[in-house]
Amino acid sequence: MLNILKLPKINFKDFHSQSMFILSYRIVALTSIFFSILSIVHFKSRSLTFWVCITVLLLSLAGIWYMRKYGKHFIIAKVIIFISTILIQINIYNLLNPDRYMDMIWILIIVLYSFYAIGLVWGVTTLLINFLGILFYQFFVVSPDLKPFNTYSSAQQVDYVLTVVFGGIMICYLLILFYKTQNITNLKYRAANEKLRVNNKVMLEQNKEKSVMLKEIHHRVKNNLQVITSLLRLQSKDIEDPEVIKQFNEATNRVIAMSLIHEKIYQTEDLSNIDLSAYIKSLTDELIRSYSVNIPVQTEIKANLNFITPDYMVPFALLINELTSNSLKHGFKDKSSGEIRISIFEDNNTIAFDYHDNGTWDIKAEKVSFGIELIETLTEQLEGTYTRTTENGTKYSFVFPINI
């Protein structure tokens, strides 16, 4: 029996509709439980009370079935109000019932429910019906527990009528004011939600357009950088000095590193972040092809920092470009195979970036090289520090702040 208190799964347009449905459903469910108990209590007597309880119980169960199947409460709420009003009025006119206070409480409950669950018209109608019923009882029905109205003095009669009328007007006014305030609040709430929904839709469309435009810009920048790369390679064919050709190739690789950044940006869905692991893999593979080393070179990339912002990507890319280029130029001269291991991890609000190869670099040549100076400059630009060791190969260990 208690399982009927469990609400059905229904999607509602707004919170107000949902709360009205929940209130109506639980009232019907609790009513069915209450009248089930009363039916058992009055079962032996088979009196009028028993048949009233059975009727209300069956109506409650029908209401539960209807609400669970169709997810609507207005019809059920109207039935609740109608039956409750009839039962309250019958109980008021029951001369064997000396207590009228509970009737007043039930009237107040059903009127408030009418305003909340159905609306202004039903609320006012329910209030007037019950109000007129009470007045009729007081004026025309003789009750053993109440002093007849016609025995009051003229002043008492006027005072009573004015008090009842004023009280009814005040209750009606307060309920109408509450309903209007709630209705205005709901209208403003829905209007604000609708405006927010429209604004969000516009912003999403604008962001989509901007994303498309930015991707197109990055695509064009990437194409322009590729044109520059092609021009540098064409121009290098007319140069006979090997050292100058070498410098041209290094400049070309730096342009390629930046070109790959723009390529990854316009290929990604989120323009604010770039897939770092995929970028490093693409860059190292491109550099290995570019330098045409005569030995196999294996790369291993480990990272728990998968994405990095575009503002820091360019110096970071150039840093990886210089390290990889130096490994390919200097580290593997006497090796039958090359290994490059790159690891990037977040650690204590910093980013630990380790670059390790199995070669031995020419330290004296590095001190005067543009590449080493560029590594130091890029590290400073990223507000980081680094150390260099040459045990079991060459290893650079960088530490950068987390804001990159």
TrEMBL record:
Gene3D superfamilies: Histidine kinase-like ATPase, C-terminal domain, PAS domain. Its EC number is 2.7.13.3. Residues 216-291 form the Signal transduction histidine kinase subgroup 2 dimerisation and phosphoacceptor domain. It is an enzyme of class 2 (transferase). It catalyses: ATP + protein L-histidine = ADP + protein N-phospho-L-histidine. Keywords: ATP-binding, Kinase, Membrane, Nucleotide-binding, Phosphoprotein, Transferase, Transmembrane, Transmembrane helix. One of its GO terms (molecular function) is ATP binding. Pfam families: HisKA_2. The keyword Nucleotide-binding applies. The chain crosses the membrane at residues 20-41, 48-67, 73-95, 107-140, 160-179. PANTHER family: ETHYLENE RESPONSE SENSOR PROTEIN, TWO-COMPONENT SYSTEM SENSOR PROTEIN. This is histidine kinase. It comes from Putridiphycobacter roseus. The lineage of its organism: Bacteria, Pseudomonadati, Bacteroidota, Flavobacteriia, Flavobacteriales.
